[in-house]
Amino acid sequence: MNIAKEKENKVHGTESFPCSYYNHNPEQGQLEVKMHWHLENEIVHLIDGQFTVEINGERKVYEKGYLFINRDELHSISSNNGASEDAVIFRMEMLKFWEQTELQLKVIQPLVKGELKFSKFISEEKKEFHYIDKYYKNIVNCHNGLKTKNDGACGKVSTSQGNQLEIIGNLIAILGILMNNQLLIKADNHLVDKRIYNIKNAFTFIEKNYDMPISVGAIASEVGMNEQYFSRVFKEIVGIPPMEYVNIYRIKNAKHLLSSTNKTVTEIALECGFHNMGNFIRNFKKETKVTPKEYRKRS
């Protein structure tokens, strides 16, 4: 499978303005963003608390600061209760509106292609933090204005063209700070564990086929691995067995359909790959603590 052709289809923001804002506060309880990847770059503001972050198989604990996640990186974030963070997720392509200048050719295009990458973390003690903080907060304010809408993935997207221009300008300002402080680095993709590419391809296969019967053997075969070895690697990197991830992904889509459509619970179960209602309800309650009907009433 060619990983360059097998990308996540979901767009954060909208097709015309691929940029969204997300936030998590202590009232929402413990933060747990499961292992995933996307085409967008991500700037995460770790506001308060302690965060366990895993990126491409490397796990670290961070506190206050700015975390930068590059496009295509397999990552997860979790925190203790009481932690708060927010994030801006955007497609680097949205910054490509100049002519073919030297800046475009030597900075923006390499970032789009993944040849240049962000440094991972800037703590609150670093001088660069305060410059970035100013522009990042401007971006947040634009997403908290009157002209916003939900992006379909629990995020906010600005619909004001004036605010969109401000967001682009502030993102470019952040890039300038990173570049002036040698915090844009040449990518060395040869250092990425080959298993990470296999897991990303497994995610893509699941996303495309979750509505169909799926077995561990079928996923392992798709990524060219032995079933037993694949299961061990998947659990080691993702933290849960493959079929548990499949069911979590199915329930995630079922939740979206329950809150956004009038389809019956049975229709939704079948559409999400559950051909046994008892199994669907059991897995749904495991993830949400309520039945599908109760979840719909609360949505």
TrEMBL record:
Keyword Transcription regulation belongs to the record: yes
MF annotations from Gene Ontology: DNA-binding transcription factor activity; sequence-specific DNA binding
Domain of life: Bacteria
InterPro entries named in the record: Homeodomain-like_sf (IPR009057), HTH_AraC (IPR018060), HTH_AraC-typ_CS (IPR018062), RmlC-like_jellyroll (IPR014710), RmlC_Cupin_sf (IPR011051), Tscrpt_reg_AraC-type_HTH (IPR020449)
Keywords: DNA-binding, Transcription, Transcription regulation
SMART domains xref list: HTH_ARAC (SM00342)
Keyword Transcription regulation assigned: yes
Pfam families tied to this protein: HTH_18
Domain HTH araC/xylS-type: from-to ranges: 200-298
Entry-linked PANTHER family: ARAC-FAMILY TRANSCRIPTIONAL REGULATOR (PTHR43280)
Protein name: AraC family transcriptional regulator
